[in-house]
Specification:
The protein is an alpha/beta fold and about 600 residues long. The chain has a domain at about 1-55. About 35% of the residues lie in helices and about 15% in strands. The chain has a 17-stranded parallel sheet. The chain has a two-stranded parallel sheet with strand order 7-9. The protein has a two-stranded antiparallel ribbon with strand order 19-20. Helix 19 (about 390-395) links the parallel strand 13 (about 375) and strand 14 (about 405-410). It starts with 10 loop residues before the first helix and ends with a strand. The relative contact order is 0.04. InterPro entries: LRR_dom_sf.
């Protein structure tokens, strides 16, 4: 939330930290050079700055839920109603949990909204949508009667409002049921009849027939709206899929279906097949995200044959991005899906049940994806394949075109064995982990620009011993040094399972880090959550050899021996004088040893150092 500050406020008020004055992204560079209070005071005392930033500060309005407002200061987090009405014409985006009387005052003033998000939509929210029907481009609404006593709009009313939004291109529907209310009532009565012995009166056949006709009309209106959209998200939504093959949504480019029920009329209980039948009507789709409900039965051979008959590779040839992360799809379903989407360049398999069937589709001798994939995320997969990291090496040794790759972990000895080998079957040990259909024993994706993986189980030598050039860690650096196009290298972990991981790369010059001097394009380096030995000397080496480096994330190790010596020399040092007396003197404070983060921030102010 943003609020105007009176330029005549007292000095004490100006010293407060005004939470409502968030710094816009374009001013991040300036804010880094000033303390927060100094920067906010500049906004308060400079009328020209304030006038220029007002449209940015008021562009987005995010309102917490009603229960939050009881616990926070109304004055600090919410503008005065008069100030709100004054600047309401500047608001372009509103996000709120529910439509409260606090926001109802905005309806006459907010007529230029391009984005609106209302969760738990009630009748009070419809006028705001109608007020902005000529400007709204993005609309996110949730219809949920749980926990509310307010009047809910009918589906007919919602569709009528959506039909008037001429420029609507992005629509997200949460918890919608595109069905006549009488049919929903009939379902409730049937459920009550099955679960209890109470006599329940069912609707007459004529009423049911009329309700089905109205349901078809509602679907027809919904699909009429859908023909204008470019982005659609359905979550917890129930609807019937299009019945005619000529019902094609030519404008739709991005589709996200999550935990929704789409009935296709086919005799199948596979939620994946029903969703893909709907996808088949989106012939110009480029990005698809699927998180279907868990199937009631296993995905069988007949289902895979039915999926092949859909000819998605012909019906939807423009799908290049597939996101099935956090889904319950089985390995067999994932493999079948990849088989009918051969044009993918971006694939997100994070936290899926990926296993060897899926791996074969990505790296097998008949795979077309291994040449086309540019972005692949296989972080935190939960299938049996995750027991070791041999499959991660296989991906890196097979997918030549990768520009971005994310995985949870890979064993150092696996990388080292590949570097040592001269051929795919160069040794008996290598043959156990690298199949013959891999392109190379070493990584073939030399054009990688983003790499995030934790190298683990590194057998490091003792600190006082020089590692040999054939050690696992040395060979890992040798492999990484070939990725000369890297812009982001994350050897730490974002997943909680990698926190405080032992036996990671030491990241010292003595262990072979200097081999990475070839990474001239590196901009971001992350070594957080690692049991490393990196000190300020290594960071200085990075700044010298990685000229484009702009962000370093991780905790720098302090050499305690040097720090204690420096601290002792700083506190007291005696020097003999001419008369023979020892005169205590002070030596210079060395922040490079005592406070390396402060030293690095001051020496390279344009580089962001963080833990």
């Amino acid at each position: 939330m943003h609020q105007e500050q009176d330029l005549d406020e007292s000095h004490d008020q100006a010293q407060e930290s005004h939470e409502a004055l968030g710094v816009p992204e374009i001013l991040i560079g300036i804010s880094r050079q000033l303390a927060r209070n100094d920067f906010l005071n500049c906004l308060l005392v400079s009328r020209s700055w304030n006038n220029q930033l007002l449209p940015l500060l008021w562009q987005t309005l995010n309102v917490p839920g009603t229960h939050w407002r009881r616990q926070i200061s109304e004055r600090k987090h919410f503008p005065d109603p008069a100030v709100l009405k004054k600047h309401a014409p500047l608001i372009r985006s509103i996000g709120c949990r529910n439509f409260t009387p606090y926001l109802s005052s905005l309806i006459p003033a907010c007529s230029q909204l391009t984005q609106l998000e209302i969760l738990d939509l009630t009748m009070d929210g419809l006028p705001l949508i109608e007020q902005n029907k000529d400007t709204l481009q993005t609309l996110i609404i949730q219809l949920d009667s749980k926990g509310t006593q307010e009047t809910l709009p009918s589906l007919d009313q919602i569709l009528s409002v959506l039909e008037e939004c001429r420029f609507l291109g992005h629509l997200e529907l949460w918890s919608f049921k595109i069905q006549d209310p009488l049919l929903l009532e009939q379902e409730r009565r049937l459920q009550a009849k099955r679960t209890s012995n109470v006599v329940v009166e069912l609707l007459s056949p004529s009423d049911i027939a009329a309700a089905k006709c109205r349901t078809q009309e509602l679907h027809s209106r919904f699909y009429g709206i859908l023909r204008r959209l470019s982005i659609l998200l359905l979550e917890g939504t129930e609807l019937h899929g299009p019945q005619q093959d000529h019902d094609v949504f030519y404008s739709l480019r991005q589709l996200h279906i999550r935990a929704s029920t789409i009935e296709s009329g086919e005799d199948s209980t596979s939620s994946l097949l029903n969703e893909l039948r709907f996808v088949r009507h989106c012939q110009y789709l480029t990005k698809l995200r699927l998180q279907p409900l868990e199937n009631q039965r296993l995905f069988e051979k007949a289902d895979e044959e039915e999926l092949i008959k859909m000819r998605l590779e012909i019906a939807c040839p423009w799908i290049t991005t597939l996101d099935v992360s956090w889904s319950s799809l089985t390995d067999q379903e994932l493999a079948a899906l990849l088989k009918v989407l051969p044009h993918l360049t971006v694939l997100d398999l994070q936290r899926t049940n990926m296993d060897y069937l899926t791996l074969e589709q990505l790296t097998g001798s008949d795979s077309v994806l291994k040449e086309k994939l540019r972005d692949l995320d296989v972080s935190a997969v939960s299938g049996p394949i995750a027991d070791n990291s041999l499959w991660v090496q296989r991906l890196l040794c097979s997918c030549r075109g990768l520009r971005r790759f994310q995985a949870t972990a890979i064993q150092a000895e696996v990388i080292a064995a590949g570097v040592l080998a001269t051929t795919p079957n160069g040794s008996q040990e290598q043959g156990k982990w690298l199949p013959g259909d891999a392109l190379s024993p070493t990584w073939v994706c030399l054009g990688l620009q983003f790499l995030q993986v934790s190298v683990q189980e590194v057998n490091r030598p003792a600190e006082d011993l020089q590692p040999q050039s054939k050690s696992d860690e040395w060979l890992v650096y040798r492999q990484l040094a070939l990725l000369t196009e890297l812009q982001t290298l994350s050897l730490g972990g974002y997943d909680m399972s990698t926190w405080f991981r032992r036996q990671t790369l030491s990241l010292t010059l003595q262990s072979g880090l200097d081999q990475l001097k070839t990474l001239k394009n590196l901009r971001v380096f992350n070594f957080s959550c690692m049991d490393h030995r990196l000190t300020v000397e290594e960071v200085e080496w990075m700044m010298e050899h990685w000229p484009r480096l702009r962000k370093v994330t991780g905790t720098i190790r302090v050499d305690m021996t040097k720090a204690m010596v420096s601290r002792a020399r700083t506190e007291s040092q005696e020097e003999p004088a001419e008369g023979g007396e020892a005169i205590p003197i002070k030596t210079a404070y060395d922040p490079r040893i005592e406070q390396p983060e402060v030293y690095l921030h001051r020496k390279w102010p344009m580089v962001q150092f963080s833990k």
